[in-house]
């Protein structure tokens, strides 16, 4: 399978704990995006990387959230001191970049904060 | 605030009919338009994209774009029960690339 992969697929954590999600984009895609989706809503943009550079962060990305893409390949999204409002599906997407604008999503990580 | 508006539905059509899904957007700078299909509990799947005014056809799907009216639509011909899903409209501008999504329209195709 050469699609976008995400790990874990599900995460249940207690309020106040830290969690980290991983995304592996489609090989040779240089743009990587993180989105968050809650029930009944469309995905909301969080941040995006071109290669290893984080080029944009949404206002949704509070200081408890941090994302990295250290070698321009996989990316991690960490949430510190989780809150119940962080419960959502966290989606990663990748795009070849340049003139190709289409984004392809991974299966997502569903986070439940209890 | 850039907005993408969709009727939440459900839109119910009989099997074999044409389903018409509509989307309006507020940012006149939007350049790229996408339709994603999302089954319950799954992630969005890209089914169509369109960048120029007019129609674009791919199999049973046709995307229509009217930038002057800030309107994009998706037609699904010969609808099948397997097409029952939520359809998300997304837009982006050339510089930013991040997608702004609508809340989606739930389509139900009745056998």
Which features characterize this protein?
heterodimer, A: 114 residues, mainly beta, seven-stranded mixed β-sheet, four-stranded antiparallel β-sheet, 11 strands, B: 111 residues, six-stranded mixed β-sheet, five-stranded antiparallel β-sheet, 0% helix
Question: Would you kindly provide a written description of the structure presented here, covering whatever features stand out?
Answer:
- The complex is a heterodimer of chains A (114) and B (111).
- Chain A is mainly β and 114 residues long.
- Chain A has strands spanning 5-7, 10-13, 19-24, 31-37, 44-50, 53-57, 65-68, 75-79, 88-95, 104-105, 109-113.
- Chain A contains no helices and 11 strands.
- In chain A, a hairpin with a 6-residue loop joins strand 7 and strand 8 (75-79).
- Chain B has no helices and 11 strands.
- Chain B is an all-beta fold.
- Chain B is globular, with a radius of gyration of 13 Å.
- In chain B, strand 6 and strand 7 form a beta hairpin.
- The chains are: A mainly beta (114), B mainly beta (111).
- Chains A and B meet through strand 4, strand 5, strand 9 and strand 10 of A and strand 4, strand 5, strand 9 and strand 10 of B.
């Amino acid at each position: 399978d050469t699609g976008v992969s995400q790990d874990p697929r599900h995460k249940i954590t207690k309020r106040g704990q830290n969690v980290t999600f991983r995304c592996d984009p489609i090989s040779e895609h240089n743009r990587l995006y993180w989105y968050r989706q809650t029930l009944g809503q469309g995905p909301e943009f969080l941040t995006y990387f071109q290669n290893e550079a984080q080029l944009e962060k949404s206002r949704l990305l509070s200081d408890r959230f941090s994302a990295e893409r250290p070698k321009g390949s996989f990316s991690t999204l960490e949430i510190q001191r989780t809150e119940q409002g962080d419960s959502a599906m966290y989606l990663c997407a990748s795009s070849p970049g340049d003139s190709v604008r289409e984004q392809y999503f991974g299966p997502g990580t569903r986070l439940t904060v209890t | 605030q850039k907005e993408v508006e969709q009727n939440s539905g459900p839109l119910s059509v009989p099997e074999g009919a044409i389903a018409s899904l509509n989307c309006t957007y507020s940012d006149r700078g939007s350049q790229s338009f996408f339709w994603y299909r999302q089954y319950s509990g799954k992630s969005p799947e890209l089914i169509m994209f369109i960048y120029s005014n007019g129609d674009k056809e791919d199999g049973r799907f046709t995307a229509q774009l009217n930038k002057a009216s800030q309107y994009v639509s998706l037609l699904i011909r010969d609808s099948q029960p397997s097409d029952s899903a939520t359809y998300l409209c997304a837009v982006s501008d050339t510089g930013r690339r991040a997608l702004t999504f609508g809340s989606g329209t739930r389509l139900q195709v009745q056998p």
